[in-house]
Amino acid sequence: MGTTLSRETRTILDSLAEDWKPAQIRDLAATLFRLADSIEQGWDGSNSQSIFRWPNRLHRIERNAVNLAWKAKCIHQNREKRRNFVPAALLAEPAWDMLLELFMQYAGGAKVSVKSLCHASHAPATTALRYIDELERLDLIRRERSPSDRRVSFLSLTDKGVLAMGSYLEEH
Fold first, then answer.
1. What is the pTM of this model?
2. What is the pLDDT of residues 127-170, one digit of tens each?
3. N or C terminus of the chain with fewer C-beta within 10 Å?
4. Any idea where the HTH marR-type domain is (predicted)?
5. Which residues, in sequence order, are bridge partners of residue 141?
């Protein structure tokens, strides 16, 4: 299914190709994926709310999710910087990249589309989809169909996934 680009879009893309480094263009693409996911979900920030949970380790992580997401973002950024110095194929940890992305989005109350998470994994789509299936089998993530578009599925961390990632981030 091809898309014809407008003259304005081609001009913007040409400018990006001339002035930006590949890593900057990839960051822009990831941001656009997140924006599309947010628009698809009708997310505006006001619908983000905490659910009461009995005080326990998971509750502590949920209360501190924004700070832990900041740590996850720093880890993610450092992982991205490595790609400037070492071939990406040598640094491949698609499942870890996906879990970091899901935790960062969890802190903001957002779910992530399968397509967006595949992109965040830095792996071929078929490889990323295998990891998504494995993470789902391990009950670290859950999949939900979009209510407005049955072709789209969203992924989010399960409580087990939040606990695993949050516990790691608390220690590092």
1. 0.69
2. 999 999 999 999 999 999 988 888 889 999 999 999 999 999 99
3. N
4. 25-172
5. 157
- H, E, C per residue of the chain: CCCCCCHHHHHHHHHHHHHCCHHHHHHHHHHHHHHHHHHHHCCCCCCCCCCCCCCCHHHHHHHCHHHHHHHHHHHHHHHHHHCCCCCHHHHCCHHHHHHHHHHHHHHCCCCEEHHHHHHHHCCCHHHHHHHHHHHHHCCCEEEEECCCCCCCEEEEECHHHHHHHHHHHHHC
Number of Cβ within 10 Å of residue 29's Cβ equals 12
Task: Give the pair of three-digit tokens for residue 150.
Answer: 């049955």
Residue-level length of the chain: 172
What's the CATH number where 13 sits?
A: 1.10.10.10
Any idea what the Cα angle at residue 95 is, between residues 62 and 156, rounded to 5°? 40
Per the structure, the count of domains in the chain is 1
Q: Which domain holds residue 123?
A: 7-43+55-171
Domain for residue 162, yes or no?
A: yes
d(CA 30, CA 48): 22
